[in-house]
Amino acid sequence: MSFIHAQNITKTFNGKNNGASTMAIAEMSLTIREKEFISIIGPSGCGKSTFLLMVAGLEKPTTGDLAIEGKPINGPDHQRAIVFQEFLLFPWKTVKGNIEFGPRLNRIKKQAYESQSRDLIRLVGLEGFENRFPHELSGGMKQRVAIARALANKPKVLLMDEPFGALDALTRESMQIELQKIWQKAQCTVLFVTHSITEAVFLADRVVVMSNRPGYVKKTLAIDLERPRTRKMFTSERFRHYEHQLKESIWEEEETGSWEINPVEEKRSA
Amino acid sequence: MNRTFRKWMSPLLLLVCWEVVTRAGWIDSWFLPAPSLVFQTLYEMVVSGEVPYHTAMSMGRAATGYIAAAVIGIGLGLLIAWSVIIEDFCDPLIELIRPLSSFALVPILFLWFGVGNTSKIIIIFKSCFFPILLNTISGIKGVDKKLIMAARSLGANGQQLWIRVLIPSALPMIITGLRISTAMAMMSLVGVEMLSSDSGLGFLVIDAQRTFDTKRVFAGIIVLSALGFSVDRAARLIQTKLLSWHTETSLGGK
Ligand SMILES: Nc1ncnc2c1ncn2[C@@H]1O[C@H](COP(=O)(O)OP(=O)(O)OP(=O)(O)O)[C@@H](O)[C@H]1O
Ligand SMILES: [Mg+2]
Hints:
Chain A has eight helices and ten strands.
């Protein structure tokens, strides 16, 4: 049963003045099941962020259909939350204030969101930091707040754009393990963009490889490893095999890659 | 030696040299009165109620012009940041009037409104208005586009976005504009009171100069300096209090 369905979507950005336009995504089709964890990898500039923004409703496809539960996506919705690499917390709000931002906008009763934010703070392991301001937190803690803030709206879809890209390697690993836990508790669909193949395999039910710009789905790879995933799996035969397959298809893209700096105007199809 | 002490060194040294030079009779007291004499004069002027009266007059004018500039500056700034149409409409006027010295308006204002309070308040308003307006505009326009996206995806719509995201984000810039303008207000206040007035600290100083009463000139300058210093300190204090969440983010990166 398809939950999010993208059918032949393209996205063209019009240049500011002279009109030189960039085609970011071309003829991309992808079907995602409910509660699936999808990792998206692909060369830089291939439209991964753009795709996420379109699912969030913050950008509109130029052509093609993009629907969730059969209804076309037009405009942002608190059921679809997004987490960026840059955290983007509200610096004038405390941890608690940041987490409660969404529920308070959506006129939820105070008792309800307060007990919920307590649960979320526990879930992301930030007890004792409720009343701290973002500038008092480490990068990893800031990203936990951003995740909790996104989950506070009880989203059906969690969109994550290189969420751990700004973190050091050790923090990153522990955040991966935690994200898995959080995802199993929160029971939502995750679209997770990353540049790390290992991270993509470790977290995902399915890894989507995108082509060079203009991006389309070049390959999807189902990851058949049992849950919960553990660090030990990193070195298992099967894990390595998945990584290798993905690496090859990325290398292929890099070799055939068009390195021109000028915006690509012609359309390429899958 | 601690730092507080070191920072008192130069003013104290200046006072001592000044006192010695004048006491020794190297310089005419008429030309440069001894600090002790100046402070004694100042004390008498405070006790007689002269200084409090003129201070109140000055501060009344400065505050009126400043508050009007703050209200209209922030209001118009928000409107301009909100609508390109309003921006295109106002921009040429802003660009034309902003670089103009406030005092260039004096003749025409005196012609229209006479030499009374209205002209003075308008001139103070003019010098406070633009820093506040421009900081408000660039504060709002400078809000991170992705922060806005994050807020929208959390469910913030137009009005909520303004009240809960854009204005709080721009607040550091707006408050900086407000603070800069307190200094502007104090400076143009003195100028305009010296041009024409029968009250206020600027008047006090210029009037003493007309009668060659140098002691009173210096006493007036001391009051102005102390006032300017206190206003600036108060403004800074309010700024750091209001932006305790911000000061460190701007230093410590993201
Ligand atoms: N708002 C925009 N206006 C114009 N062009 C844009 C805009 N957003 C993205 N693009 C262009 O679309 C293409 C895809 O951008 P996108 O950010 O989606 O890539 P990405 O896959 O996320 O890259 P990275 O891995 O580097 O984050 C790029 O060529 C980019 O320059
Ligand atoms: Mg990106």
